[in-house]
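> example.struct
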């Protein structure tokens, strides 16, 4: 008796670990661990993994950002303080020399501050470019790690994916390291100003520092909670972006115009966007009063500092130079507590970090357990057996399969017939192990599918899907997809194109096999639906020529014209000869040519046999066949 695994144990949608965003630091947690887990540190570590040299350069930028503005102000203050003495004693006096030195230092620092802008621009562009490549590589790696596709229909995973790309909040995560650097530079600059204030009155520097930190904390928390409610609205925001893409990209452009969808799309986009942002706006309104309290505190602290300076100057306790330096340090110290739009943007960028990690942590290890050790090369030699298979889509309300038994004999063609929604395409999905059954087993030459190396088995199954992909690549690349970047077997390519009826079409293209099949690229050209279908068919036949063991054709002639369809039928036996093939079609002129026909109904195979056998049985197949034949004859008579 085969082991019947229960639903929960088979290839589940990988569950992301709880977002580190929501893991509140426990008081017992080591501070160093909390520091390492901080999203800022993780973003900077990401940059270090891209290029340690770049991180060091960014560090130097932070130092310059912290020191240069203060040095300029201090030097200018000192210069101001020396003016009276220099004016009195002359420039050649000691006081005059001190003035010149202070002016020279101020000039150099100011000059260096002037190049800060262009340097920051260049550095930001480099960091962004390197980060984008790394982030995209990690995302593609994570998303394509599982052999199955269930995770791509999991809303939580899709929210994470959209946010890790920066799409959900319209904030580019690749800009996070430089924004952190700029923010850190500002904070250090403010801290340095507080230290300078300490040299005047130790308590004033400390008080300013403590006040700014105290001011910054509640505003920081407000920003976090705003961004948190923004992030929580993942689904409506993702939907808003989807609608926006529908309205602005070519895919749906034709239907959007013909059906006049433009206004509806715009209204729907607005509705979902507003629904996504409403909690954030409510949060902002709730926070308004706290922000007002903080603003009053800022004013109070600043007044205390300025008042103290004014008082001491009035009583001649400090000289002009000290007064000039300290007066500039007061506003400089504000950088410790200042919060701007950049902080909000940075907070949004940083939400991508835990999402990126969660995707990698959940999807990449999920790829491993699904892999078996048996090499499927040359399989199937005998058969592929579906044994008591049960399957229901995650979140679905009904079983698609309930005790399905079917044997696909090696070297034979089997046609799958059934009404819309009977589960024909789903059966192919299980065969290619893009999903696993909830119950029962699929055996290839007696070996459970789970014991085969998943990726290699998937390469053994060449499928022309009903909704095959039209890649914006050259005609050649569209056909030789499974070996992209590797050597191309030109003879097999030509034969595949000839058998699928694509050869004449490709030879008629402006650059032949090298024509890009997309009008969105220079010299590119689009194809008609039927022409694309021939290319997709050639893709599967090329894979078969290169050793794939199973050919699956899902509605192979749906988009072909009458002549192409007739030519396909003539070649059908030749195309599928000796190949283990599965043909799904509602056209009985295709189906009848298969060696065996399986009728799928109510989650099981209800009839199985050759065309003649099933007609003789006078069951569902015979009824469907006669209805279609009658409709066809009727149609011809009317013409
Ligand atoms: N990704 C999915 N998530 C949930 N349910 C799905 C999904 N894909 C298909 N279904 C459902 O599973 C059932 C079988 O769908 P499937 O596409 O396999 O049918 P089919 O026989 O190929 O139909 P058709 O002849 O229309 O192509 C249908 O009820 C469909 O609604």
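> example.seq
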């Amino acid at each position: 008796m085969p082991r019947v695994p229960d639903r929960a144990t088979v290839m589940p949608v990988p569950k992301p670990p709880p977002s580190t965003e929501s893991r509140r630091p426990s008081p017992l947690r080591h501070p160093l661990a909390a520091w390492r887990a901080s999203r800022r540190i993780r973003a900077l570590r990401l940059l270090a993994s891209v290029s340690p040299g770049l991180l060091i350069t960014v560090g130097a930028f932070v130092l310059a950002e912290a020191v240069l503005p203060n040095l300029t102000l201090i030097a200018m203050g000192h210069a101001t303080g020396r003016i009276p003495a220099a004016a009195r004693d002359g420039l050649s006096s000691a006081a005059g020399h001190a003035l010149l030195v202070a002016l020279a230092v101020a000039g150099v620092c100011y000059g260096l501050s002037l190049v800060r802008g262009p340097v920051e621009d260049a550095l930001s562009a480099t960091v962004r470019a390197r980060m984008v490549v790394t982030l995209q590589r990690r995302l593609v790696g994570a998303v394509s790690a599982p052999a199955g596709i269930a995770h791509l229909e999991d809303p939580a995973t899709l929210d994470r994916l959209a946010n890790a790309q920066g799409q959900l909040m319209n904030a580019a995560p690749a800009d996070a390291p430089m924004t952190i650097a700029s923010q850190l530079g500002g904070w250090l600059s403010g801290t340095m100003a507080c230290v300078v204030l300490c040299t005047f009155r130790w308590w004033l520097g400390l008080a300013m520092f403590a006040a700014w930190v105290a001011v910054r904390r509640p505003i920081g928390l407000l920003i976090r909670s705003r961004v948190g409610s923004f992030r929580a609205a993942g689904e409506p925001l993702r939907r808003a972006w989807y609608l926006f893409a529908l309205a602005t990209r070519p895919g749906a452009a034709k239907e959007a115009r013909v059906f006049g969808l433009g206004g509806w799309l715009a209204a729907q986009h607005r509705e979902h966007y507003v629904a996504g942002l409403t909690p954030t706006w409510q949060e902002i309104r709730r926070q308004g009063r706290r922000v007002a309290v903080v603003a009053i505190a800022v004013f109070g602290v600043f007044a205390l500092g300025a008042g103290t300076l004014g008082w001491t100057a009035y009583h001649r306790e400090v000289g002009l130079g000290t007064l000039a330096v300290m007066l500039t340090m007061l506003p400089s110290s504000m950088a410790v507590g200042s919060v701007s739009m950049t902080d909000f943007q940075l907070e949004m960028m940083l939400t991508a970090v835990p999402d990126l990690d969660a995707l990698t942590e959940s999807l990449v290890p999920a790829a491993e357990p699904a892999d078996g050790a048996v090499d499927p090369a040359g399989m199937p030699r005998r058969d592929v057996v579906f044994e008591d298979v049960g399957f229901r889509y995650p979140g679905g309300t009904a079983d698609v399969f309930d005790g399905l038994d079917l044997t696909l004999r090696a070297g034979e063609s089997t046609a799958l017939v059934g009404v819309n929604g009977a589960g024909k395409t789903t059966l192919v999905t299980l065969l290619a192990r893009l999903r696993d059954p909830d119950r029962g087993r699929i055996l290839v030459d007696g070996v459970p599918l789970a014991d085969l190396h998943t990726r290699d088995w998937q390469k053994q199954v060449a499928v022309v899907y009903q909704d095959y992909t039209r890649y914006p690549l050259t005609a050649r690349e569209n056909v030789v997809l499974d070996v992209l970047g590797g050597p191309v077997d030109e003879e097999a390519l030509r034969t595949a194109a000839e058998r699928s009826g694509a050869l004449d079409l490709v030879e008629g293209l402006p650059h032949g096999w090298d024509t890009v099949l997309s009008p969105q690229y220079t010299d590119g050209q689009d194809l008609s639906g039927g022409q694309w279908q021939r290319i997709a068919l050639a893709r599967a036949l090329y894979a078969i020529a290169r050793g794939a063991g199973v050919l699956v054709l899902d509605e192979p002639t749906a988009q072909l014209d009458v002549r192409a369809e007739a030519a396909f039928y003539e070649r059908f036996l030749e195309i599928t000869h000796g190949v283990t093939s599965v043909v799904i079609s509602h056209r009985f002129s295709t189906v009848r040519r298969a060696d065996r026909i399986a009728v799928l109904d109510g989650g099981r195979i209800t009839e199985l046999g050759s065309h003649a056998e099933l007609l003789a049985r006078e069951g569902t197949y015979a009824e469907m066949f006669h209805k279609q034949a009658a409709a066809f004859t009727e149609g011809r008579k009317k013409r």
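> remarks
Residues 1-29 have pLDDT under 50 and may be disordered.
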